[in-house]
From TrEMBL:
InterPro entries: Methyltransf_11, Methyltransf_Superfamily, SAM-dependent_MTases_sf
Alphabetical UniProt keywords: Methyltransferase, Transferase
Organism expressing this protein natively: Pyrodictium delaneyi
Name this polypeptide is given: SAM-dependent methyltransferase
Database matches in CDD domains: AdoMet_MTases
Swiss-Prot/TrEMBL GO biological process terms: methylation
Amino acid sequence: MMHNEYSPKKYWEERAKLAVKDIYQAVCAYGRSHIENKAMDIIQKKVFASMLKGVDLRGKKVLELGCGVGRWVPFITSYGAKYVGVDISENMIEVARKRFPNASFYKIDSTDLPFPDNSFYLSFSITVIHHNNYDAQSKLIDELVRVTQPNGYIFLLEGIAHGGRKKTWFNTFARPVHDWVSEVEKGGRAKLVKIKYVRYWILRDIFRKTLGIIGIDNYPKAVNDMLVKIDYYVDYYLLAILPRKKAVAAAMLFKKTGKIT
């Protein structure tokens, strides 16, 4: 996959084609193994669920920005919510509609969302906004806040940088946590409710650096399943005692105020 001159739309149209062989390769960490991306998926779901404690989504409309192939549809609908997803990739949307014909998906061509103000009780985006340049990030966050109802929620799980804004990969434009928070809270339009720091693949990376283990996916399924479970516990619970500087992402839940900005 070409990494020079990153174009979000072109890049994600190509990534969508990988869903034929592995859903995770289309929407999770490109180049990581299936087992590693499965661990990432488990961690993200656990984190999201912990952030939604006390939030009643029954019968509420929920928007996902950057829905990809619909990875979050089962999670959101399990809360009794009505799911709506948007994405810039026609290929992603096509796969999502085939997988979840009862959900609503829309293709977008810009940072503008095709919905009226105050349309959704919860608007969320998971490791999507950081794949846009900083100007586009600000516009996307503005739109997420705009379409969220007063007293509704905005949830982001995005890459973080330490010390200042930083391009951490060819298509990942990370911000310090305070930068993400101030962007969403701008003008008093929202308030941070909860935050949780995230790290992936701690155990896996230790294995690769110290033991040179590369072919993890070639292990028997029972071994793979065990590694996923162990890696999940390591990643999810070890951050409680590690410095925040070891985190690579942050999950942030905001509540929208009724203030007009």
